[in-house]
Amino acid sequence: MWSPCIQVCFVDPERQICVGCFRTMEELARWTRYSDDERAAIGEALPARRDAYRAAKERK
Questions:
Q1: Cα 59 to Cα 2, 8, 42, 50, 53, distances in angstroms
Q2: For residue 57, what pLDDT is reported?
Q3: Do 1 and 32 form a contact (C-beta atoms < 8 A)?
Q4: What is the pTM of this model?
């Protein structure tokens, strides 16, 4: 099963998102129950989440 995990697991408590893979807490909890298509769709969204997260951090 494909996973975007890079084994840098740290959840930003403010945004409730892993700053290693950029999945939400719900996605992390349900990952093994998602279909391949659902995991692929989430995977496609992760680069944009990463970029948005990093841009927000730079503005602070």
A1: 33, 23, 26, 14, 10
A2: 84
A3: yes
A4: 0.89
